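Give me the fold.
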Amino acid sequence: MKISSEQPKIIVVGSSSIDLVLNTEHHPLPNETVMAQKSESFFGGKGANQAVGTSRLGASVYFIGCVGMDPLGQQILRNLVDEGVNVGYVVETEDAATGTAYVTAAHGKNSIVVVPASNYCLQPKHVEVAEKFFSTTDLVLLQLEIPMDVVEYTVKLAKRHEKKIGIYAAPAKKLSQQIIESVDFIVSKSNELSIVFGDEPREEILRKYPNKLFVRDDSNSTTYFNGSEMKYYRNDHDSVLHKMGMGDAFTSGFAVAFCHGNSIDECVKFGNDVSLKVAKNRGSQRGLPYLKDFIES
């Protein structure tokens, strides 16, 4: 993969949270109580994950989001600053607590309940005040843990400034045709494709969006249509134990490679390589790699 001498500039508009992970023997059934062997807390939220992911990969990152005026919000802000992310446009609200996620982890699979809280207090006006940075950015990244009117406004603002746009369509919501046509790439989970695009066969959906739609599976595989053939890239091994944050990691790697002008094949490969490293560690951000991890000394 080629790395240009110019540092990519990326604006991430999205969510942040504190994730509480409960490690259990199995996922509880309705009306069942299970005992957890241990509980752990991590920094998370798809937006913050991608902000940290792209920053570690050498991008200059602005994060636009919303946290509560509480200790968890302060922890998130300090962590982002420590990771080199500019938080000048993160809103602190008194109207809601900081977002949280509750994860039950058993046998390599996660059940996740997200409490958006302050993330749903983000408004288009909070993005508007950062417009001056849209004129100089290389890419705008979005996810769907924030209100859709914020997503729609951000896409319009980025298009007004003729900027590249990427969306990780998770948690899955229906995307308007206007958003689909406006963005440069969309990452989607295989089992959520019908929610995002409608009830058509997967291959037909992929063929509609050549080199734009990238479908991810839990095995760290990525499928896409390049305009002439269906492409499939996969790399995994026995150390793929922790699958939280793999989609955010892939999106971060793909985005940075995209900003450096690499081919789609190279962007997918780099995204998969970044995602694989995350799977070796618990927590969505802990295992995010640095650019130096991919550059031979």
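Residues 139 and 163 are 6 Å apart (CA to CA).
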